[in-house]
């Protein structure tokens, strides 16, 4: 399974970094996890958006889903005329998508096959979900194929339910939106130290620190995580990619 960072900027895009979006590939199947604002452009550095096979959206904050709207137009409209099959899209709530695309469920169906977030198979992947602590309905997820598992926190404040859910993942992709030495508003996000502590308690093989907002120094977040997590820590950036077998 390969995990590639398409964009990883928290809250709003940076000058050279789209908001959250990750491409997960195995055996030629392309699963896109989140598609925040700016991600559709960045995705084209890695594949034709028509070759994405499924999308999972963790929650309906703009930095995780807004580029579904232009994707609804990009999929069927391309100069070479190739129209891909309907794209399965797992969403916590489809209503904002209908409003922003101006299409109801029936009109959108040729482009998107909108489905609820439920545990199950997505292509070759087995995907399970757990609600996080965030102001809107948000799901962390665990993606498995063969003996390999990757966990993704989505957006969340600290929750004791997360470490058991991520137990033994080979890679934990954890958000680190707040600086370690600053108390942000409650119920929103993790600090880098909390992300690293979550990786420790999960027994994660390695940690990818992500969702760092443009106004923070990522190296400070990285240093805080390295000082806490006992395993390898990487800092997400566009194009960062790892293959786990
Ligand atoms: Zn976010």
TrEMBL record:
Domain named Metallo-beta-lactamase: residues: 18-211
Domain of life of the source: Bacteria
Single annotated GO MF: 3'-tRNA processing endoribonuclease activity
Q: What is this protein called?
A: Beta-lactamase domain protein
Species: Acidothermus cellulolyticus (strain ATCC 43068 / DSM 8971 / 11B)
